Amino acid sequence: MPDTNPGPSKAPWHLWVIGVISLLWNSLGAMDFTMTQARNAAYLKGLTQAQLDFFYGFPFWVVAAWGIATWGGVVGSLLLLFRRKLAKPVFLASFAGMVLTTIHNFGLSNGWQVMGGAGPLIFSVLIFVIGLLLWLYARAMGRRGAFR
Prior knowledge:
The chain is built from seven helices and no strands.
């Protein structure tokens, strides 16, 4: 009996561009998370003591959500580049981690004041939008049949 499942379609050129750019972007977030959790003094030297106390005072669930958000983005980007269906749920988990972290930082704590006002909030919105767009992109690529 002939094989009726043709397999994945050829990956569009933009998958590679989005995949590489997202891997670079998400790697920066993962590095920030890792350096902050390791309390790397050279990396954190530009922060005030109040900002350091803010980051070091995160409850476990926030640290876990932040880790899932950042490292999930790296893993999702790699899965996107390897054209794996798992990219979609991993990007969704990463996005959920971003949502939880943002809720804590700007809704349940004084992150707005400690981090210095609108700039960090705008950057958080940018991170939020990029995370959502990556999940939507992975979903679209899955529907298009670009994944294995």
